[in-house]
Amino acid sequence: MELLVEFINNNLMLALGCVGFFLLAVFNELKIKEANICGLSTTDSVKLINQNSLIFDVGPAERYAQKHLLGAANKKPEDVTEAELRKNNKKNKPVLLVCDNGNASKKLSLKLRSKGLDNVFYIKGGQTEWENASLPVSSLAD
């Protein structure tokens, strides 16, 4: 034990770097775990939709006009806020976010969850994964 204390005293920067690296690794693992909790497969997303969830497409309006999930409302990510959801979701329905590839909806769902909204989810892989699973889409022309 004395050797360890002596090593740390002689190599303080190295020891602090190791501790910092360890803390970053732990933080990253916790962040990944949280992302996996709110990220749903297409199968689980269908189950959530069947529970009468609110669906927001946070992708570009142009793509939304061409094709989107049935029942989804197109919103800019900055318009889907904690205050907006608390105000307009009095029954605390699950909220499902979708975008092109899942990145924007993942980022937004993690942001909303960090503010205490635990019923917000996103589709892993986004609409691309939804279409690859041959699930139905709609368009504004329909």
UniProtKB/TrEMBL annotation:
Q: Which residues cross the membrane?
A: 12-30
Classification via InterPro entries? Rhodanese-like_dom, Rhodanese-like_dom_sf
Q: Give the Rhodanese domain ranges.
A: 49-139
The UniProt entry, under PROSITE patterns, shows: RHODANESE_3 (PS50206)
SUPFAM superfamilies xrefs: Rhodanese/Cell cycle control phosphatase
Q: Does the keyword Transmembrane helix apply?
A: yes
Tell me yes or no: is Membrane among this UniProt entry's keywords: yes
Q: Mind telling me which Pfam families this protein's record contains?
A: Rhodanese (PF00581)
Q: Which UniProt keywords apply?
A: Membrane, Transmembrane, Transmembrane helix
> Which Gene3D superfamilies does the annotation name?
Rhodanese-like domain (3.40.250.10)
The protein in question is named Rhodanese domain-containing protein
Q: Which organism is it from?
A: marine metagenome
